[in-house]
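Tokens in:
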């Protein structure tokens, strides 16, 4: 009797090995699709959050030691004609008290910056999650949206490290702007007092921020299974809206 043919049993494809947190961080810069493919497996976001926080705090400590938060506060006041006028109208004693309060407020805000990073990224993740979920029916969870935003923020570490190099090289305390402390955007070369709206737009055209936006779009495309072009349109669309609103508000507030 002839032997029955043996039907080959399909061999399951081997599962992709899980990435370590360090590998995820490295791949965010060199192969972001690998990072976000792994985010689909696990939505852990603590590693980029810690890195963002540590680098930011190291920068603020450096500024505190080399330039001083008092000088930072003075420069912030000089950038606003309204704040400058208000300060000049105060008697010398009250002016000193106001400057001391501003200095202390700056110190508390900057050393509490990890909380700002978390809150900012939660808001960004919520807005993008809602947009992708309801506008294009992306296969998405909020926890993974937050992980995408955290990892996609890592290129901003490059900007902070460049700012630290600038301060270490002897950046002028009189022209130091802690909110725009390195020449990664054309706004760095403009005076906010002269054209606040243009300054806001020019500052937003930042190399590291554009890098972050592109990585964010890649992340939502991979995790949410949407077209790359759709993800880019949503991410950059929201950034344009935010930039125009922030620039207009900055111009009105003086």
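Residues out:
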């Amino acid at each position: 009797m002839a032997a029955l043919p043996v039907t080959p049993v399909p061999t399951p494809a081997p599962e992709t090995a899980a990435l370590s947190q360090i590998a995820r961080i490295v791949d965010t810069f060199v192969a972001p699709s690998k990072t976000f493919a792994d985010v689909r497996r696990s939505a852990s976001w603590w590693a980029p959050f810690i890195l963002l926080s540590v680098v930011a705090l190291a920068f603020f400590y450096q500024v505190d030691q080399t330039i001083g938060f008092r000088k930072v506060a003075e420069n912030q006041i000089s950038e606003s004609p309204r704040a400058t006028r208000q300060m000049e109208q105060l008697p010398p004693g009250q002016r000193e008290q106001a400057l001391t309060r501003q200095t202390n407020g700056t110190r508390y805000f900057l050393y509490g910056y990890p909380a700002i990073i978390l809150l900012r990224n939660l808001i960004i993740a919520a807005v993008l999650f809602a947009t992708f979920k309801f506008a294009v029916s992306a296969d998405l969870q909020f926890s993974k949206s937050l992980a995408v935003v955290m990892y996609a923020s890592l290129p901003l570490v490059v900007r902070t490290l460049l700012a630290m190099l600038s301060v270490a090289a002897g950046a002028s305390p009189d022209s130091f702007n802690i909110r725009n402390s390195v020449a990664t955007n054309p706004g760095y070369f403009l005076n906010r007092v002269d054209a606040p709206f243009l300054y806001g737009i020019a500052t937003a055209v930042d190399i590291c921020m554009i890098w972050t936006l592109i990585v964010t779009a890649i992340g939502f495309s991979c995790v949410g299974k949407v077209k790359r072009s759709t993800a880019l349109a949503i991410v950059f669309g929201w950034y344009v809206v935010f930039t125009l609103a922030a620039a207009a508000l900055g111009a009105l507030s003086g």
